[in-house]
Structure formats: structure tokens, C-alpha cells
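It would be a great kindness if you could assist me with a short task in structural biology. The matter concerns a single protein, recorded as an amino acid sequence and a row of C-alpha cells. Kindly check, if you would, that the fold set down in the C-alpha cells agrees with what the sequence suggests. Thank you for your consideration; the sequence and its C-alpha cells are set out here:
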Amino acid sequence: MSYVSLSTPAGIIYIQGNEEHITWIGFSKPDAPEGNTPVTERAAEQLTEYLNGSRRVFDLPIIVEGSDLRKAVCSSLMRIPYGETVTYKDVAADIGNPKAIRAVASAVGKNPISVVIPCHRVIGSDGKMRGFAGGIPFKEYLLGVEGWTPKR
């Protein structure tokens, strides 16, 4: 397990993986040795393409570990189209548990593979930005890459 870092105008994205899978993408330095694998190199290339506007869909081997809820939420997030947003309530309904809004919000907040699993596309029911591991400015930056303008 090792990681690489990718500098962006909004901050650094860290990509962690092994020889076969991406296991984590986030905004704080991981507790793993720095180093590249073919998979992390591929992820860095695809993230760069995404940030440059030339990629809308990621094609990476990822592993999501955790509860059934976390896996269901991550699957739901992967279905949010590029440039669109949904609410936590929408995700809860999508996974078949419309009353689990708080649990969904918690699972979204613990997304292990940010950007690739697009948790930045989830906003509050009032249209405002809500928590994001990389910070609200980073979330707005990612949505801006996708051509979406947050409501103020």
C-alpha cells in the first residue's frame, strides 16, 4: 500500500492504493509510504483529466469496504450524473431507505474514494453546500469543474 499526491488549484488530493486497487482518495496525507503503483499512477492521470475537463467518467479498480449502508450509498453516488447534484434525501430514497437521511449523510461524509465516488455532488435540500472532507471551497471547485454553479 502506498500513495501519491496530486496538486490542484484547490489543494492536494492524495491517492492511496496497492498493485490492484485504489483503496482511498482524500484530502489529508495518508498513513502509508509515498510511492507510485501502476494503479495510483492511472488514478492520478484520470483525476488530472477530470480536473482539466477532458474526463467525465472514471475507469479505475476501486474497493469500498464497510457496512452494507456505506456500500449502497457509494453505489448511489456513482449514479449521479456529471454536472448534476442531488440531496441527501434523494440518496436515501435511491437506496430504498427514505427515512435514513442522517445515516446517509454520515456515510457520504465517510466516502473512502472522494471525487471518483462523487460525494461532492450531494448538497443540502435547501440547495446549499454542506460538509465535505476537503472543505466547502474544494467542493465548489469540483462542482465548478463540472460546470455547476452553487446557489448563494
Remarks:
- Residues 34 and 109 are 25 Å apart (CA to CA).
- The mean pLDDT is 94.
- The helical segments are 38-51, 68-78, 88-94, 101-109, 136-145.
- Residues 68-145 form a domain with the Arc Repressor Mutant, subunit A fold (CATH 1.10.10.10).
